[in-house]
């Protein structure tokens, strides 16, 4: 509601500014002009909604351009950090990144769909960034996942990642070793590594990158040079992938 009122104020300001001699008007002329503008808007309220729609479209376009600059600026950290799990085709030309949190409901919802997207598009190279922002369980689960990746490799990490995304219970020192063991990981070694300096540094690096990229929620995706902030249904994600692919050809 607040942003809507702000938009209306901007519409009124623009309307007033359109009068070339507004600054030279007398007080009575300004009052009369303001009354005419008010009367017109009351009689034609759809104009306000049209102006708000135009304003929102312009803001979306400006945000997209800003995101493209961010992707270009931090491309190396996004796509080639040297420690994040790369899924799909390691040599794929369609580059994607996902910032994800194991306690995020929308990340869980997107998980299977992202796997379907990768399966349907063999040119996708997906970099998965552990980005725990939803509390201590998120942090502990991310630490566990990074530990499994370090100790057991990508295939076991993938199985653990799947299991964590399917888990709806608590993620703590009791449950995580059990989930890791069921995924084929060395749970004892995971717990030895979970608080290591290396794991801490990886999470810190991901957080720093996320802050630089204005990632305030999960999931957040980078597809080519576009950023998608929030859950995107599979069909829409496929359209975006197709658009990015076509624009690069």
| Alpha plus pi helix count | 11
CATH architecture title of the largest domain? 3-Layer(aba) Sandwich
What string, H for helix and E for strand, traces the elements in order? HHHHEEHEHHHHHEEH
Q: Classify the helix fraction into a percent range.
A: 55-70%
Strand content range? 5-15%
Can you tell me the overall shape?
A: elongated
List how many beta strands DSSP finds.
Answer: 5
Order of the strands making up the biggest sheet: 1-3-2-4-5
CATH first level of the largest domain: Alpha Beta
Walk me through the topology.
Layout: H1 2-17, H2 27-43, H3 46-73, H4 75-79, E1 85-88, E2 94-100, H5 105-120, E3 124-130, H6 136-152, H7 154-166, H8 175-182, H9 187-193, H10 197-212, E4 220-223, E5 226-229, H11 234-248
Parallel strand pairs: 2-3
Antiparallel strand pairs: 1-3, 2-4, 4-5
Account of the 3D structure:
The structure is a single chain. With 249 residues, the protein is α+β, with helices and mostly antiparallel strands. The chain folds into 2 domains: 2-66, no CATH class; 75-248, Glutaredoxin, CATH 3.40.30.10. Helix content is 63%, strand content 10%. The longest helix is centred in the first third of the chain and has 28 residues, at 46-73.
């Amino acid at each position: 509601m607040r942003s809507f009122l702000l938009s209306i104020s901007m519409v009124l300001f623009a309307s007033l500014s359109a009068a070339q001699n507004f600054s030279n008007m007398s007080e009575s002329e300004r009052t009369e002009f303001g009354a005419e503008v008010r009367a017109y808007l009351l009689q034609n309220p759809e104009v306000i909604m049209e102006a708000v729609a135009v304003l929102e479209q312009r803001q979306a376009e400006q945000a997209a351009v800003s995101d493209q600059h961010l992707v270009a600026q931090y491309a190396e950290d996004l796509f080639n950090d040297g420690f994040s799990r790369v899924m799909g085709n390691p040599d794929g030309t369609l580059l994607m990144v996902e910032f994800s949190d194991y306690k995020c409901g929308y990340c869980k919802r997107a998980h299977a769909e992202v796997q379907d997207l990768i399966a349907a598009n063999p040119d996708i190279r997906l970099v998965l960034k552990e980005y725990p922002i939803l509390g201590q369980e998120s942090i502990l689960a991310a630490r566990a996942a990074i530990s499994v990746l370090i100790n057991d490799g990508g295939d076991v990490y993938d199985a653990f990642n799947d299991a964590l995304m399917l888990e709806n219970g608590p993620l703590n020192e009791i449950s995580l070793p059990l989930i890791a063991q069921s995924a084929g990981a060395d749970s004892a070694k995971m717990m030895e590594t979970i608080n290591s300096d290396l794991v801490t540094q990886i999470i810190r690096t991901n957080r720093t990158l996320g802050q630089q990229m204005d990632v305030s929620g999960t999931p957040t995706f980078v597809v080519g040079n576009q950023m998608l902030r929030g859950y995107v249904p599979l069909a829409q994600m496929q359209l975006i992938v197709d658009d990015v692919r076509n624009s690069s050809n």
